[in-house]
Amino acid sequence: MAHTVKLALVGCGGISGAHTHGYKDLYGRGCREFAVTACCDVRSACAESRADEIAAFQGKRPQVFASVDDLLRADVAEAADVCTPHCFHHSTAIPLLQAGLHVMCEKPLGITVKASKKIIEAADKAGVVLATAENARRSPTSRACVWAIRDAKLIGDMRLATVTYLANSQFDYTQYAMKWRGVSLLTGGGMIMDSGAHFADMQTLMFGPVEQVNCQWDVFDKRPILDAPIVGDTHADVEDTWTVVIQFASGMRTVWTYGRSFYGDKVEFGNYYGSAGTMYDLGFKFHCFQGGGEALLADGTRLSNDDLQARYQATLSEADKARLFPYGCTDSMGIEVWDYIDSIRNRRKPEMDGWDGLNAKVLCEACFESGLARVPVKVQDVLDGKIDAFQRRFDDYWGI
Ligand SMILES: NC(=O)c1ccc[n+]([C@@H]2O[C@H](COP(=O)([O-])OP(=O)(O)OC[C@H]3O[C@@H](n4cnc5c(N)ncnc54)[C@H](O)[C@@H]3O)[C@@H](O)[C@H]2O)c1
What we know:
- This protein is of the alpha/beta class.
- It has two domains: 5-135 and 326-353, Rossmann fold; 137-315, Dihydrodipicolinate Reductase, domain 2.
- It is built from 15 helices and 17 strands.
- Strands 16-15-14-13-7-12-11-8-17 form a nine-stranded mixed sheet.
- Helix 1 (14-28) runs parallel beside helix 2 (44-58), helix 1 (14-28) crosses helix 12 (332-345) and helix 6 (140-151) packs across helix 10.
- The chain starts with a strand and ends with a helix.
- It binds nicotinamide-adenine-dinucleotide.
- Residues 10-16, 40-43, 46, 68, 83-86, 88, 92, 106-107, 135, 176-177, 194 line the site of nicotinamide-adenine-dinucleotide (NAD).
């Protein structure tokens, strides 16, 4: 008989709020498959306020801990939902896994390919569930557009995608969550693998394996950052501009361009061209189709976001709906956390396990490696660890 999963939230900053919203949404729909029993954060105030928020819908207040060690000693959880900064993913997830807890770790799985492999190894050794928290693919709109492009082939055989975001949208380095995002030692690289992790996952979900990437990236924003975690006073050193050509094994190409240090009007589009039509991304283009999509077919027919939704939903059985939109939930975080809980209760693979997380991550790392070496790079060589010049600094610093 499947049981109630006792969960610890580890890292109670920004995204843990969205996870909590997901838990609350499920709870409100009658789901009692989980109980959040602990909130853990080195900044105790974050853990305290998240615990209050959870108590308000769950009735029982989770216990609060200031470290993973304290959490493990108390033995109040069998599973963890890890939402720490990138540089702490391996150092929080691995002890949890070694203690026999199931772990869902926010994207990107580890700070480097090597760190990600170590997390996967620890899970395999402990024989527990490892899930990658990747929500962009789980929205009804994303699922419908993946179906439209990949399964229904509404726009025919894919030829080219071009996705661009150019704007003047500087990070606010006075905020804790942006301080670590500006420092490569803490984040492992900038938006190529932050929002880029969602992009990489959606691209491979839609278009299959990637053969190679050819990337150029620049760091224009080198403003000071004060009191960053671990490193203290420093300056921004992550890429804020890039262009990459992603070459898929199928022959399809995606051209991906980003810059946040450019004055003038914002330029933003995500266009997907096939032999029988075009699809347009209506939301934030790096979370492909999470904000909706529409199609223009070769015969002039336009399919709105609602049309695509209706067509997709009509293909789903009741069992599909229960799995993809559990309890009728359409919140991508709610779906994500339920999938993790259900994979523990039923001892099945989560929709995105560690290898799936690494698959998205390695595409991002290949972009960094290509930009550093100034040559096209094969993704397989980065996965195999044959090319790691960009990542070696982080592996060395963190002793990975
Ligand atoms: N799915 C999404 O759309 C999405 C969006 C934002 C962030 N994220 C991911 O979520 C993760 C966290 O990002 P964020 O924006 O919430 O960052 P954040 O800085 O807002 O929160 C991170 C929290 O972790 C805590 N922390 C640091 N070290 C810790 C440790 N050793 N043990 C326990 N807690 C610790 C910090 O005090 C902080 O409260 C990152 O991996 C990020 O890429 C995902």
